[in-house]
Amino acid sequence: MPWGGAVTIHAYALCILVGIVIAAWVTSRRLTKRGAEPGVVLDIALLAVPIGIVGARAYHVFTHPADYFYEGADLWRTLYIWEGGNAIYGALIGGAVGAYLGCRMTGIRFWSFADALAPGLLLAQAFGRLGNWFNHELFGMPTDLPWGLEIESSNPAFPAGLADGTLFHPTFLYEIVWNLVGVAVILFLERRFRLRWGKAFGIYLIWYGLGRSFLESIRVDPSEMLLGVRVNVWASWLAVVVGIVLIWVQSRRHPGTEPSPYRPGREWERPEPGVDSDDIESDSDSLGDAADAENDSGETRATSSSGRTS
Fold first, then answer.
1. I need a surface site. Which of 27, 157, 245, 250 has the fewest CB within 10 A?
2. φ, ψ dihedrals at 8, nearest 5°
3. How far apart (Å, rounded) are the C-alpha atoms in residues 125 and 123?
4. Could you give the CA distance from residue 294 to residue 290 in angstroms, rounded to a whole number?
């Protein structure tokens, strides 16, 4: 999308940015309602987002080595995120590292942040998948279903040997729908079972891992294989296992309610409600009162209350 003839704005990048903004907004609202300081999510995001983007790109590059590492390859292309290629599992790993560091800095419990993030993360992924439509990438096998996606035969990802006009499964659309349903599932289970201590994030891992493992199996884009299975399918299965283990461990370790989103000793000191500046006596107020009293009485009171504050 050219702008002014000098800057090119890629719809794929815009989708990712919109997803990040929405995830941050949802997470901030949810965390603030649980007692966190308004705006603290931005402090965490300053580390989580850039490290997550680096992780997303690194994971994609190293799981698609043939696309970037070959004789005569331009290694700078490994940095061209506008060409597509940002893996959610890499983003999760990198983002988790950044979020952990941000939580340590702000005093927020890491699992409290992860729980608040869970539904917003699915929303962000849904918007990110919309970018795959603009790029016409990451589609599935051929189909004759009425909602099949037509891909131009000049597309580098178009499978060889197929006729022009072949329709393909819009796997990114399937994932958008799956993610949006997942938001409702997480919110329902969270309200029904008071999920805290990372258990809502565990539901996210299970939900997303199950859906992604199926969608990966019908995609036609090239991928590294491990024991005859796509690497991202293995990663999806691992996400499901991690989610189950997380819920089981945290249920045993923390059967009660979460007392605060802050770690002990790092709680946010809320300003007292109803306090007006006129109600607080300052040094200048005390000096003025003392001067008035001196003028009224005609007596000098050098040791009056001029130095007191309240």
1. 245
2. -105, 120
3. 5
4. 6
Would strands 7-8 and 149-150 be described as parallel, antiparallel, or unpaired? unpaired
The SS3 assignment for 78 reads: helix
Q: What are phi and psi of 70, to 5 degrees?
A: -155, 170
The pLDDT of residue 230: 93
The annotation places the binding site at 129
Q: Residue type for 224, please? A: E
Mean pLDDT by 10 residues, the chain (310 residues): 52 87 96 93 95 91 82 79 78 96 96 97 93 86 93 88 92 96 97 94 98 94 88 96 97 90 83 50 42 46 39
Contacts of 60 (CB under 8 A, 6+ apart): 85, 86, 87, 90
Q: Which neighbouring-strand residues pair with 229?
A: 226
Residue identified by tokens 């490290």 is: 51
pTM over 0.85: no
Looking from the CA of 185 toward its CB, the CA atoms found within 13 Å total 16
Cβ pair 127, 180 in contact under 8 A? no
Which ranges constitute the DSSP H helices of the chain?
11-33, 40-63, 88-106, 110-135, 171-193, 199-217, 231-253, 283-297
Residue 124: closest CA among 152, 100, 92, 147:
92
